């Protein structure tokens, strides 16, 4: 299903919403419209554009769509992994801050470097 809102084209699926890169999607749509217009109004070499050039452009659009679909698939796989990594990162940061604070309270500033803590306040 496709809909247009404020010149932004979104592509959705039934399972979840997938948003293609706006730049890529807009370029695909503009290129398709150009190819369609060229096919309607040019016969052979009219307008300085040949059928071979139009066919080549059409193939490039298909290649871009395939590459974009692959990127979308990878993005869907990556998103939950990034979320998990961010959760673990938050845990590590919290543990680091807690241990650092404990060590700073227990040892004098001169000894902080022994524990990998910069001796700055």
How are the secondary structure elements laid out?
Elements (H helix, E strand, L loop, with lengths): L1 E4 L2 E5 L4 E2 L3 H20 L9 H56 L2 H4 L9
Shape: rod-shaped
SSE string: EEEHHH
Low-confidence stretches: 1-17
Beta strands, count: 3
Can you tell me the number of structural domains? 1
Identify the strand order in the major beta sheet. 1-2-3
Individual helix count? 3
The secondary structure category is mainly alpha
Could you tell me the strand content as a percent range?
5-15%
Task: Give an account of the 3D structure.
- This protein is mainly alpha-helical.
- It is 66% helix and 9% strand.
- The protein has one domain (2-115).
- The chain has helices at residues 22-41, 51-106, 109-112; strands spanning 2-5, 8-12, 17-18.
- The chain has a three-stranded antiparallel β-sheet.
- Helix 1 packs antiparallel against helix 2 (51-106).
- The termini are far apart.
- Mean pLDDT is 83; it is low at 1-17.
């Amino acid at each position: 299903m496709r809909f247009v809102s404020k010149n932004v084209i979104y592509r959705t699926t039934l399972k979840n919403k997938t948003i293609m890169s706006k730049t890529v999607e807009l370029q695909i749509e503009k290129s398709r419209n150009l190819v369609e217009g060229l096919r309607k109004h040019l016969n052979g070499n009219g307008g300085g554009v040949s059928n071979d050039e139009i066919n080549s452009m059409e193939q490039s659009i298909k290649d871009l769509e395939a590459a974009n679909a692959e990127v979308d698939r990878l993005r869907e796989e990556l998103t939950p992994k990034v979320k998990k990594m961010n959760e673990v990162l938050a845990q590590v940061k919290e543990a680091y801050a807690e241990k650092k604070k404990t060590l700073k309270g227990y040892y004098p500033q001169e000894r902080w470097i022994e524990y990998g803590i910069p001796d700055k306040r």
